[in-house]
Amino acid sequence: MAGGGTAGAQRRAWLTAALLSVALLVAPLLVWLFLPRPAPVMPARPEPAPAELSRPEPEVSAPKEAEVVAAAPPPEPPPPRETVVASAGPVRGVVLDPEGRPSAGAVVRCREPPGASASTDAEGRFELPPEADGCEATAEQAPFGDAEPTRVAAGGDNVLRLLAAGGIAGEVVDESGRPVEAYLLAIESFVPAGTADRGSVNGRARKVLDPAGAFQWGDLAPGRYVLAASAAGRPPARSPSVDVEAGRVTRGVRIVLPQGATLRGRVVDAASGEPVVEAQVELDSVTSSGANAISLVLTDANGDYELEGVPASGPFSVRVRHDAYVSKIVPGLDARGAGSARADIELRPLGDDGSREELTGIGAMLSVSPGGVVIADVVEGGPAALAGLARGDVIVRIDGESAADLPLSDCIQRLRGAPGTRVTVGVEREGRALDVTMRRDVVVR
């Protein structure tokens, strides 16, 4: 009995285990069959690219919008040349001396077109404004010669090289060929190499003391020079044109100083006729450089004076000054090859009209420009102004003779003269030639 009960209990336990196993297998199947199924997971559909979207047709009720879309704005015109140049930036470069070293303090300027200029720094470098792009530039610095004109460009490797200096060597003698031991030597005129323009006459002068009358002037920029020499009792005389080349000394230059004449006379008060004491009498505009070894003289107690060393021939002028009188320039004097000449002079006392100087001529002030001798100004109401001459006119002829090679001092002397005498002046103005004949007159300024 006991063994049968045990076997029945084992069968019941095995049956229970079998039923539990079946339940575990059937339960998931029932859940899958009777519960609602989730929506299938689909991959996201890509959005169509904007280019693939069809463009909507324009609405008929909005014609203005259609016109605006259809009418594209006109293309902008290209910027003006100035804007293009400005965008290129400044023009930079360097100036070198003849040995290839940077040259500080050199002046760089545009020749064609003119206008822009700059100075080099301690390293020889310069900077021109953007509008200088493409200009023809040169550089200058004493005592060297000007650099060869060079086209410069923004962003380019711009190098300007100064030319080596040259020199002039020679002697000063009298009319017999004997050396003049003591004299004053000056640069009368200068034309830089490579140009027809005249350089400025700066009045550089030096005293020379040499038993043989010899001189040597170095540190000269290449170009064409005229020198002037003068000595006590000998009026200034000029050398022939001298060509100076870079790095070379031009030798064999000779200047002949002839003996001058003596100008005598008396200076008196124009109103009373009384002598003017201690009036200064001196040569005027005898050289273009202003260098002149003929010292001024003073009138004595009788108003008399003697000025030694005036030109023995050809017209010359003297200037007479006194603090209480209007200064007077007396033109057209000529010793005519004689040893002496005379000129008595009247001075007007200073008045309330403000005038300080009286002269006889055409009433024009002259100066040297790159194009030649030019009218710097005219006196209002003077012969030149009344004849229509104006500032900037370049003098090309005087009484039919070319003035192209005449120094400033010669032009001045030829335009001066006695009141009432005629002179014909040819000038060039803005490319046009103009000849004017006028009567010289007394001009007070």
Automatic annotation (TrEMBL):
CDD domains: cpPDZ_CPP-like
Membrane-spanning ranges: 12-35
Residue spans of biased composition, Basic and acidic residues class: 54-67
Keyword Protease carried by entry: yes
Keyword Ribonucleoprotein: no
Disordered, as annotated region: 45-85, 104-126
Any GO BP: signal transduction
Keywords, alphabetical: Hydrolase, Membrane, Protease, Transmembrane, Transmembrane helix
Domain PDZ: start-end pairs: 344-420
InterPro entries: Carb-bd-like_fold, CarboxyPept-like_regulatory, PDZ, PDZ_6, PDZ_sf
Organism: Sorangium cellulosum
GO molecular function, one term: endopeptidase activity
Name of the molecule in the record: Carboxyl-terminal processing protease
One cellular-component annotation, GO: outer membrane-bounded periplasmic space
Organism lineage: Bacteria, Pseudomonadati, Myxococcota, Polyangia, Polyangiales
Pro residues composition bias: residue spans: 72-81
